[in-house]
Design goal:
The chain has about 350 residues and is α/β, with parallel strands linked by helices. Helix 3 packs antiparallel against helix 9.
Length: about 350
Amino acid sequence: MLDDLKMIHERDADDALGVVEKQWQQLGYDFGVDKPDFAGIDNIVLAGMGGSAWPAVYLQTWGAPTVPFEIVRDYELPAYVNEKTLFISSSYSGNTEETLAGLKEAEARGANIVVIAAGGKLAELAKAASHTFYEIPGGIQPRMSSFYFLAAMTQLLEPLGLIPKGKLAELKSTGDWLKDQTASWKPEIPTKDNPAKQLALELIGKSIVVYSGPKLFPAANKFKICLNENSKNVAWVNQYPEFNHNEFIGWSSHPVDKPYAVVEIRSNLEHERVQKRFVVSERLLSGKRPAPEIVTPKGESHLEQLLWASNFCDFVSLYVALLNGLNPTPVDLVEKLKAELNK
């Protein structure tokens, strides 16, 4: 079925596959924003939800921030936010109510404010208050614009000295490298030669659980998000070693025949004890959970493996959507929820 290009084009009416194939271009996008006049920053707080918050998880791992960096997925900010906080308000639509609430509170506390959005109320507020504003190009789904957000955050934080020098250059060069890595995942590549299609066929019809170690968790979390929104498929995510302290036991009981698929993103960059935990856990859970589908990220650097795994899993989630008979792009239920909340 996944080699039927006519079916793919009919179901993928908004060309989500074309968008994710070109995501590497987002990493080198130049926002042309001057360095903000901020000084004495003690901490970073980013308010965002879903795909607008996910890139900040990258920055917490790969970016190696030089001050504490917290992500807020809520209406209220931490008590410590003050005039020495760099507050980043992040929302693709610019209308995310939790993020708007955070901005209002950050302004009241005198925080140093930056807005990242494609438009909406956030863009209006940023321009009215002369906040530093990174405008994301519009026209695609938030979850498919995450690399724009990563580029914006890196362009913001490196000149301020809040992440090490060289991260911007690494992001751009890794984007160029990623371009070539997507070649075997494209729809015109037949299933027998296409690892993304092959994995999608193993996942169809099941609830999906994704595991990784800490270094690759941003990619695992992105995969979970895209399985939910692209595939309209229930999925969960967790990471080692935390998995072994609770969830590991959950697999040991009934029912033995569990309607799940397990995907493990295993990186050779994880701590050696984490790598061993994957192997030992698989052996001890043999017969108690489905055998894991193992994704081994390509790349030598942390960033290469993160971006490779993220882009690969994007393709997989889109192929699962097509197998589900769905257009991956719309998220109608989210729009209905927003409408109901606004009544």
